[in-house]
Amino acid sequence: MKEIEFQYQSDLHQEGEIPSDIRTEELTLNMGPQHPSTHGVLRVVLQTDGELVLQATPYVGYLHRCAEKIAEKVTYRQFTPYTDRLDYLAGMNNNLGFALAVEKLGGIEVPARAEYLRVIFAELNRIASHLVATGCYGLDMGAFTPFVYCFREREYVLDLFEAVCGARLTYSYITIGGVREDLPDGWIGRCREFLDYLGPKIAEYNNLLSYNHIFINRTGNVGVCPPDLALAYGLTGSCLRGSGVKWDLRKATPYCRYNEFDFDIPVGRGEKGTVGDCWDRYFVRIQEIGQSVRIIRQALDKLTEGPTQAKVPRAVKLPAGEIYYEVENPRGQLGFYLVSEGGTSPYRLKIRGPSFCNLSVLPVVARNCLLADVTALLGSLDIVMGEVDR
Amino acid sequence: MLERLIFVLFALPAVVAGVAILLSTNIVRMAFWLITMLISVAGLYFLMGAYFLGVVQILVYVGGVAVLLVFGVMLTSRQLAPKLRPGPVETLWLATVSAILLLGLVLSILRAHTGMEPLPVPVANSPADIGHSLMGDFLGPFELASVLLLVAMLGAAYLARPKVPVQNPQGSKGGAV
Amino acid sequence: MTPSEIIEVLKQHDGAGIVSAVADGLHPHVVVKMDRLPAIAALLQSDWRLRFDLLRCISAIDWPAKNSIELSYDVISTSFGHALAVKVLLDRANPQVESVSVVWPAAEWHEREAFDLMGVTFLHHPDLRRILLPEDWTDHPLRKDYPYPVAYKGLKLNP
Amino acid sequence: MMYVPERPPVEYKGLSLAIVRLATKWGPAGISLLLRFAWGVFFAAIVVLVTFVWAVRRFINPLLPWFIRDVVVVVGLLAFVCIVAIIGIWGERKVSGRIQSRLGPMRTGAWHGWAQSLADGLKFVQKEDLIPRDADQPLFRLAPYVALVPAFCAYLTIPFSLGWVFRESDVGLLFVLAMLAIEVLGVIMAGWASNSKWSLYGAMRAACQLVSYEIPMGLSLLAVVLSVGSLNLIELGRAQEGGWFSWLIFRNPFLFLAFFTYYIASLASCKRSPFDLPEGESELVAGFHTEYSGFRFVMFFFAEYVAMFAVSALATILFLGGWNSPVAGLCSPLWFVLKSAFLVWVQMWFRWTLPRIRIDQVMHACVKYLLPLSLLLFVGSSLWQLYDNRAHPAFEGFAGLLHYVLGGVGLLLLGLFFAGAGYGYYNRNRLVGSMVRKHLPGA
User: Fold this and answer.
1) Would you say the C-alpha torsion D67, D73, D74, D75 has a positive or negative sign?
2) Facing residues of C22 across strands?
3) Is A3 close to B168, i.e. CB distance below 8 A?
């Protein structure tokens, strides 16, 4: 496997060695903006020589909705629904990041029950998001069935969300000062049921996909992103951990009482190839689902009675100041740089989308690889274009 | 009557395709015309009762050689097509050579019709007969052909090998033989 | 290290380059001189006590009142877990600053974004193009005095 | 202000114009007349046909009725092929639904959505027939036929049972292989003519893969041919009469393994998963048929399912006893169809379970594993065959030794096969990520 890979890297493209009249034609291949495996409206321009990709240049911006400009015109509360649309697979986490940034700047204290509920929903959404990532990655590799299985499980999570806030994708549930509603009756039982159900399912995915020989051959040793490269390009989240860097904001700078929970940070160990290959990034996500299950169980145990919403005026007014606040999203660190001049809307809100930074490593890694490897790499970076383009 | 009709059905495409190969300037079209011709000729073989030959013609020439040909043609640059037009001197040469060949062919056909008796050809139609004659009477030529093919294969492998030593990250220098 | 200690280290190395520093509060940062930015970035990234290896974000803020554009480089160290922000103030009429993509390649896209939306020119950037907006867009929308576009390629936009 | 591209109105010219005029003028009247006198037309047709046959026999050529028989059989085969494709497409959707804990099509038709593929076909026929502007028009139009017709022609020599064959041929096996080899031309033609880079990639992959896998496929089949001594498919089927143990797959260990090498290679030659690179939708959008729509797309779809059944039929005849039943004596075309359908089903099962292989791995698997293995099986099987002929003077003196050596090699290969399968089965739980099992309370 490895030998072949290096051979086609080195012997095919020696400039001047192959007579120019029999050299194969280089093609410029336009992958996207409508392509099944670019996960949205990403456009990648590939320079290819046969199946070999010499260069990949991503073009983004097809989903730019001026979220940062909009933020300057609306109030803090009004901006929460816009955060849902950033990383539309992890609306809860986006809400949480924005709410935390505003609360920290305004000095708002959140009640304990709301804190735990936030953790529960953030982690449930992490599970949902990772299930989508896992299933779609199977789809990218040509295995259709894991995709359906993962979406089946995700449905249960969405049902849980629907029960509590009525929405299945754009929740706006975690608001400034707490959460919007308390749990309905019997919700905790259903949640526990789901957690019991999910555990064996993960073993099923591993049997079906993770340890499939073809899958390992397609993803192991492919798209290797060493730790220093990952850090240099600002990769965060499971992409960074897949490269073997043990870095998780929930441990490093705990927010929302994450320090009270007992969980591990899974990192890529190069089990099926090199540290930082596509398989590592994929498998970190699978493991993180398990860790999220652990966190939710603990949070459900700790859940106390009490209010779910702090006393916050309807029109939130923040003092003048600035803050840069990051939370650990399923795709990495989502940052909000919030500048307030006093008043009900931000002076400037800069959003750091984790997918944006994760994608920036693509041209570096997708060089001299095969066409199918670009798909493998894109899938393992797990980008959401809503967040890249904002 | 019916046989004549079917003969025309196969022979006409073969001739048309042969002419089209010469006249076409698009190299991929040429390849597909060639395939048409090969299939038509295979049809003629079927008509003559040489089923084995016809099937092998399709299997080897159409399924193997022609597909590889198209494959190679598709990979080469599209700008190559204008170069295929021969210059005036080349045209002259080619015309001379083809004319001489055609003359010889026509003459031999004419002679065959007028003068000679048809040679008694041993009927070897079934695969078993062909096998027996290949491994019996014609074993020498058969083996010679196989050696020739082997040499051709080795030559192809030699030509296709990388001209520069492959830089192997593992340290071992492989590649150039 | 706490922000104040980090700022101490920075001041030891390059006291002249630092305009001001805020060590406490929600967003501890140092404001550095424009021409000293690459050196300080390299120092932050490579000094064994600091090791700011992860560039989190580059935010550009338009201050028409102060007639300046502020760039804030938020960095964090995955080895030590401490964080800091480095700020530079640029002239609003002609915002130009040296690119830090040599130190943190992650800056490449962030700087393209700042160029696209705020019109900051980064010198010696490997590939300074618009990133989110079309290449033929004319203005920089995140400036406070951005005129609302009336039409784009014959397509009328209703405000 | 939006720019809406204007589509020029359809213009009919020449013959098409005449046909359109004729159809619009006389069509409705003609159809209603036909319906009015349907029974009359039917009986008249029968009378005309019978008279025609009689006249032909009497006055022109007594053999010509055989020609008519051929026409009838070809029409029957065509119908069978269409039914195979239609049921195959519906079955694929039901199988995928079953595997993915869904129902699959349930509404169209009364029972389990059986009419779904018919409805889809109708939809496709009605779709606009799009040809890209820069496409190579004649080749683009021709390609679907080049893909479908050879796949159909393969059925001309496939026997469904004793006597149930269009033409019994001495080279029947080679004929089927040759026809399946032409099919790739349609794919390449489509890929080239579409003038789309994705299609071109699909075509190149198809050419690369199909030509390579023809060799192990042919070699595995040759092993069988060698042990029966015929290329005639009827002969091959007849050699396996008398219960399941006389099937060729159980003839000797080499043939047992040759069945699997053939089956893997046939997956590749049908472009089925995990070798579905020419149309791998996550990489190449839709591969060689990216630009095809409507009825032309249906042709490609049909060709795929027809070829699937053809290779399965070949495997059935050559390895699984063809039309012979597992117990002696009950030969019937039904057995043949059932066995082939089973193999088709396994192909579907593969598709919905496995990821797709990368192109270099496809070639790697062929050249480095499948090809040497099939060569080995070919040589082993022929040696076994030689040994079986005890009277052969070449074995005087060491026939017993050869017996044990060959038997040992065969048993070793068989044992390795089952050991591998057993190892996988025994370790099926260990393969599960240890971390996940340990930490999840629910597991």
Assistant:
1) positive
2) C29
3) yes
Residue B29 in domain: yes
Residue numbers in A near C113 (CB within 8 A): 356
Q: What per-residue confidence (pLDDT) applies to D70?
A: 77
Summarize pLDDT for A118-163 with one digit per residue, the tens.
999 999 999 999 999 999 898 888 888 888 888 888 888 898 898 8
- Residue A2 confidence (pLDDT) above 80: no
Closest to A333 measured CA to CA, from A252, A259, A253, A236:
A236
Q: Which amino acid is at D164?
A: W
Is position A13 within any domain? no
Candidates B76, B78, B164; nearest CB to A14: B164
Write the DSSP symbol of residue A309. B
pLDDT confidence of residue B163 = 57
Chain D residues with beta carbon closer than 8 angstroms to that of A140: 282
B108 in any annotated domain: no
Q: The complex's ipTM?
A: 0.79
Name the residue range of residue B25's domain.
Answer: 1-79
For residue range A162-189, list pLDDT tens digits in order. Answer: 888 888 888 889 988 888 888 888 888 8
- Cα A376 from Cα A140, distance rounded (Å): 7
Where are the strands (E) in C78-119, listed by range? Answer: 83-91, 96-98
What total of structural domains would you count in chain B? 2
- Please report whether residue B173 resides in a domain: no
pLDDT value at position B122?
53
**What's the whole-model pTM score?**
0.80
Average pLDDT of the segment spanning A337-359: 89
Provide CB contacts within 8 A for D167, sequence distance 6+: D156, D157
Q: Kindly identify which residue of chain D lies nearest to residue A7, measuring between CA atoms.
A: D360
Q: Quick check: is A222 in a domain? A: yes
Mean pLDDT of B92-121: 77
Nearest-10 crossing angle of helices D172-193, D197-228:
170
Q: Does residue D332 come out as left (phi exceeding 0), alpha (psi in the -120 to 50 range) or beta?
A: beta
Last residue of a domain, one of B79, B113, B147: B79
